[in-house]
Specification:
- By secondary structure, the protein is α+β, with helices and mostly antiparallel strands.
- The protein folds into six domains: 101 residues, Ubiquitin-like (UB roll) (Roll); 74 residues, membrane protein fhac (Ubiquitin-like (UB roll)); 88 residues, Ubiquitin-like (UB roll); 76 residues, membrane protein fhac (Ubiquitin-like (UB roll), Roll); 72 residues, membrane protein fhac (Ubiquitin-like (UB roll), Roll); 205 residues, no CATH class.
- It is 18% helix and 42% strand.
- It is built from 15 helices and 35 strands.
- It has an 18-stranded antiparallel beta sheet that branches. It has a three-stranded mixed beta sheet with strand order 1-3-2. The protein has a three-stranded mixed beta sheet with strand order 4-6-5, with helices on one face.
- It is globular and about 95 Å long.
């Protein structure tokens, strides 16, 4: 390769002389652009990651050699020639034009000898794909990948040889010759010398399994040593500090089953005697007392000696120093054994040194996100005393941004023993979300346009500066809307958030009427208790409450246009016990309803008043929240609490509704189990939520149903809806309990939920009316929850019921029992 590059450099001089105006004019000129000729199977965008850093730099031969080496390292090209082209008439800039000859493309992958493993499984395991550029290094890697695949299936004598040949059209056919050999299967697993632990228990901790209903019993040589370690760990965690695996006896049967080798395994164990723990002692600790160091341990005198817990305790003692900036201390365990009493103790030898300061913070892997966007999430900077707890807190903040799929910190020695360098390796993930949907409906209604379109775009890390920008468009028969928003979470480099939004919408809505029987006047509405004006066809409010709904034939249709704009500002504090956020905002809106006044008369006075002229709809609000969740978008432990107060109606006389609204939210997350099954992390989390919302009308003023609190069926009382008069009111209480089981961490989880929710017409009824008198709406069922910001949906099946006289009554009682219905909800974390 060195010879080839050197020869190309000589060609480079020749070509530059050929294309240049005179002499080496290109030296010292700014590289304006880098172009390619001869690309067939490789796109120019595939090379941008290599060439982009060189654009705008001053040309030197060293820089050119570095760029050429990077292009050859891709292993895409057999040959590269270079020409220099003037970038402007004055020869102040240069364009580098690379004429390339691509390596051949893989036209077909041929597998020879695979009779026991499917072709699709092998193709999935290898990196070479058809229509890829042929790469010899990948060929050798894929030989290993195929061998590993066969070894996983018990083919211990597998042999794989990869080769290539021309296809006659300039491409390559990749051939893998496979000699599968005989498959090796475990016939039995037994133990010798295990007195204190049963065979069944030891088999349970092993990864190798005997054949069974869900086990193929494939023998994997690599797993033998891992299982020996697992068995010893089991003994060591139960006091058997001297346990050892003396040998593993194997017997192979090649005759019982044609084409298979059956192997029996016998683990010969020497258990030794069980020990208890006699305690910790310390020597050399002056900065922290014995009590402070012991507080970081769990193993107590008299406990069964557990080597795994001992190792965790030792790390905890080291972390006491590490978290306070003492990174260069010498800390070593000196084990004390008393074989007569069968006790093991430990003296921790400590040589204390001064605190370490951070010399540099290096960030690697952030191609898009700016360094300052990452560094501002850490309450630590260059020159500060190192603190491991602050590093972990900063990592939590970064994960909550959802900009990165992986974050790995590392601490290395600096230029002086008292200095350390903090290295942050990050792996960026997509922060843009594009959603588009088309729904066909209403085909049987000739007056209804049968297509609904939804489109939205959001970027939460705009141009790498940590800003959010989003827009959405909805076009449907009953809703058309357009919205835009922009947010900045660190205004002027301070933990101050600022967001603005604009929206316009048009909706087709339905309302009850007051056109038959007794006609209620505006003064009747104003004087009625809690808007208790019955809609047609009912004469009294009691009749309406008993029926619960309005027949479709008595509903009127009206249209509503609205414009709104809003602005919010917030500030964040990050004490140790939780993040504290204060947020406040203003919303200004204009609304007007349209309908035929000669044909319709809504029973709701607010609906009527909003049809007379454009009406202001303004509010102001403030919220304080406390967040101690480990991850806000998919928490597994911690808690959250918030209190929001808003006031509707800013300008006297010109607005129609004036009321105070208070919303209280509490969340708690408890980890139930966390264990590994092979490579799968099986974890369960219990999530609990309680919310209370109250509306206080100003001076006894009545408010419309559209402004009241409701069981909406999507976020509150999932599976229900606000069609019934009993599901809206001025007081709302809701709870849920969920069992959450992550399936793909950070992407997908399976949940089981139980919801309960209730509304009361007035706040006083919430405290005076019996909570067991047909008040609560319950629902339960399974669901799938997506935890990525590009697809924040929950797909759920809900079964809904209420309780009357102590007896459950299903939502669709006419069907004779329970019935499931689909619910689409959103996974939007509280903030």
């Amino acid at each position: 390769m060195r010879v080839k590059i050197f020869s190309l450099i000589l060609m480079f001089f020749f070509l530059f002389g050929l294309y240049s105006q005179e002499g080496e004019w290109w030296v010292g000129k700014t590289i304006k652009s880098i172009d390619f000729e001869g690309l067939v199977n490789i796109s120019k965008s595939d090379l941008d990651g290599i060439t982009k850093p060189y654009k705008g730099q001053v040309f030197t031969y060293e820089l050119y050699q570095e760029l050429l080496g990077a292009l050859f390292a891709l292993d895409y090209f057999d040959n590269i020639e270079t020409a220099a082209v003037k970038g402007d008439d004055d020869y102040n800039t240069v364009i580098l034009n690379f004429i390339v000859q691509e390596k051949p493309v893989v036209s077909f992958i041929e597998l020879v000898g695979n009779s026991k493993v499917r072709r699709s499984d092998i193709l999935s395991a290898i990196t070479i794909k058809e229509k890829d550029i042929y790469n010899y290094t990948k060929l050798k890697m894929d030989e290993r990948a195929i061998r590993d695949l066969y070894l996983e299936k018990g083919f211990t004598n597998i042999r794989v040889t990869g080769s290539e040949r021309d296809d006659g059209n300039g491409g390559k056919i990749v051939v893998f010759n496979i000699d599968e050999g005989r498959q090796t299967t475990i016939s039995s697993i037994s133990f010798e010398g295990n007195v204190s632990v049963t065979d069944k228990t030891l088999k349970r901790v092993m990864s190798l399994k005997e054949p069974g209903l869900f086990q193929n019993g494939a023998f994997k040589e690599s797993q033998v040593e891992l299982d020996k370690t697992a068995i010893l760990r089991y003994y060591n965690e139960r006091g058997f500090a001297d346990a050892e695996i003396v040998s593993v006896i194997r017997e192979t049967d090649s005759e019982t089953e044609p084409g298979k080798d059956l192997v029996s395994l016998k683990f010969v164990i020497k258990e030794g005697e069980p020990y208890t723990f006699s305690g910790y002692s310390f020597d050399g600790n002056e900065i922290f007392t014995d009590e402070q160091l012991l507080a970081a341990t769990k193993l107590k005198p008299g406990d069964v000696y557990n080597i795994t817990q001992f190792q965790a305790d030792f790390q905890g003692i080291a972390d006491v120093y590490f978290n306070s900036g003492y990174t260069s201390n010498y800390i070593a365990p000196e084990m004390k054994r008393d074989n007569e009493r069968r006790q093991i103790g430990c003296e921790i030898i400590i040589v204390e040194r001064g605190r370490s300061h951070i010399e540099n913070i290096f960030i690697r892997g952030n191609e898009k996100t700016k360094d300052h966007v990452i560094l501002r999430e850490f309450d630590i900077e260059t020159g500060d005393i190192f603190s491991n707890s602050k590093v972990l807190s900063g990592m939590r903040n970064l994960y909550n941004l959802q900009y990165f799929s992986a974050i790995q910190p590392d601490v290395v020695q600096g230029s002086d023993p008292s200095l350390v360098n903090l290295i942050l390796d990050v792996e960026e993930q997509n922060t843009a979300s594009v959603q588009f949907g088309v729904t066909f409906s209403g085909i049987t209604d000739a007056n209804s346009f049968p297509v609904s379109v939804f489109a939205s775009w959001a970027e939460t890390n705009f141009m790498g500066y940590g800003q959010s920008l989003s827009s959405s468009l909805t076009l449907s028969p009953t809703q058309q809307s357009l919205s835009l928003s922009f947010g900045e979470s660190w205004l002027a480099g301070k933990p101050i958030s600022l967001a603005v939004s604009l929206a316009v919408y048009h909706s087709v809505l339905y309302a009850g009427q007051d056109t038959t029987g007794k006609i209620f006047s505006d003064s009747d509405w104003d004087n009625a208790e809690d808007n208790n004006i019955p809609p047609d066809p009912y004469d009294t409010w009691d009749e309406y409450e008993t029926a619960g709904t309005i027949p479709d034939s008595y509903l009127m249709q009206y249209k509503q246009w609205g414009f709104s704009s809003g602005a919010t500002v917030g500030y964040r504090w990050r004490p140790k016990f939780s993040d504290i956020t204060w947020t406040g905002g203003l919303t200004f809106g204009l609304v007007r309803n349209f309908y035929d006044h000669n044909k319709y008369r809504p029973v709701d006075k607010v609906v009527r008043d909003k049809s007379k002229a454009w009406t202001w709809d303004n509010s102001i609000w403030t919220r304080v929240s406390f967040d101690a969740r480990d991850l806000s978008f998919d928490p597994s432990k911690g808690w959250f609490a918030s209190q929001q107060v808003s006031w509707q109606g800013l300008f006297p006389e010109i607005e129609l509704e004036y009321f105070l609204r208070a919303d209280t939210k509490l969340e708690g997350y408890i980890p139930l189990w966390n264990t590994n099954i092979g490579e799968f992390n099986f974890k369960g989390v219990l999530a609990n939520y309680v919310g209370v919302s109250l509306i206080y009308p100003a001076n006894g003023m009545n408010i419309s149903d559209s402004s009241k609190l409701s069981v909406d069926g999507m976020f509150v009382g999932r599976g229900w809806s606000s069609e019934s008069s009993s599901t809206v009111g001025q007081a709302l209480f809701s709870t849920y309990t969920e069992l959450r089981i992550p399936v793909v961490p950070g992407l997908l989880a399976f949940d089981f939920f139980f919801d309960s929710a209730a509304t009361w017409s007035t706040i006083s009824q919430m405290f005076t009316k019996s909570w067991t008198d047909n008040t609560f709406y319950f629902s339960f069922g399974p669901g799938i929850r997506f935890t990525i910001q590009q697809f924040p949906f929950r797909l759920m099946m809900a079964n809904c019921f209420t309780v009357k006289n102590g007896i459950p009554e299903w939502k669709h009682s006419s069907s004779g029992g329970s019935s499931w219905e689909f619910v689409l909800s959103f996974n939007i974390p509280n903030s």
